[in-house]
From TrEMBL:
Residues making up the signal peptide according to the UniProt record: none
Presence of the UniProt keyword Hydrolase in the record: yes
Gene Ontology MF terms in the entry: serine-type endopeptidase activity
Residue intervals of the Protease Do-like PDZ domain: 124-226
Keyword Protease: yes
Pfam family, one: PDZ_3
Protein name as catalogued: Protease Do-like PDZ domain-containing protein
InterPro entries: DEGP_PDZ (IPR041517), DEGP_PDZ_sf (IPR046449)
Gene Ontology biological process terms in this record: proteolysis
UniProt keyword terms in alphabetical order: Hydrolase, Protease, Serine protease
PANTHER family: PROTEASE DO-LIKE 9, PTHR45980
Length: 228
């Protein structure tokens, strides 16, 4: 059965009159698109002002009117419009772009974040030169209580920088005693960025780079420009 769709954009309230005037929506409401999910072909662009979703007007506070009993209504977050929509549901949308109204329609897709939130994701790991490498997942972050790690914060803020595809954030989660790493220290959650100069896309890719290495040296590049 289909899962629930996910809004393919992040937004900012237009809380001041100057902001609404600057984006040419004074008196109309709407919210500014700050980021667009690269995994969804929505047609949205950063700085679009979303005026309507599913035919409902969006206020500058990011809220929409929901009808209640006896002709009354209550204003709730625009995310309410998505909470009962399944994947492949068409989402008609009206935006203000470069001084013109533009009508769009896109099909909702499931969220595919770079840092997986699926609790059923297998607990993979790879050990290279005593370094324990794992893909960053919400399950790992919760178990390790690593919410305030620099690498975790950077990954969460950058999840929409590019399409997810086969990418993972690979991090150092531990160090085992090994003659190669004697005397070295790494912080937990340091990111594995490259192997022999090639950027690491995922844990599987890291394993392939290690297995295919024909050089005399295997150089691991981690965040903060440290090398092993």
């Amino acid at each position: 059965s289909p899962g629930l769709g996910s809004p393919p954009f992040r937004w900012q309230k237009l809380e001041t009159e100057d902001m609404r005037s600057y984006f040419d929506v004074f008196g109309r409401g709407g919210v500014r698109v700050t980021a667009v999910d690269p995994n969804v072909d929505s047609g949205l662009q950063p700085d679009d002002i979303v005026l309507e979703l599913f035919g409902e007007s969006v206020g500058f506070d990011g809220k929409v009117a929901v009808p209640l009993a006896q002709g009354e209504s209550e204003r709730v977050s625009l995310w309410f419009l998505f909470c009962d929509k399944f994947t492949n549901t068409a989402c008609p949308c009206l935006v203000r772009r470069n001084g013109e109204d533009v009508r769009l329609s896109f099909h909702l897709q499931p969220a595919r974040p770079l840092v997986s939130v699926d609790p059923a994701v297998p607990n993979e790991f790879l050990i290279v030169a005593g370094l324990v490498l794992q893909p960053m997942t919400m399950a790992y972050i919760g178990d390790a209580e690593a919410w305030y790690s620099y690498e975790v914060m950077r990954a969460l803020h950058g999840m929409w920088d590019a399409a997810t595809a086969d990418r993972q954030v690979v991090v150092v989660t531990g160090m085992l005693s090994h003659e190669v790493n004697a005397g070295m220290a790494f912080s937990r959650e340091d990111g594995l960025e490259s192997i022999n100069g090639e950027r690491v896309r995922s844990l599987r890719h890291a394993s392939e780079l290690v297995d295919s290495c024909t050089s005399d040296w295997l150089v691991l590049g981690v965040s903060a420009k440290n090398l092993l």
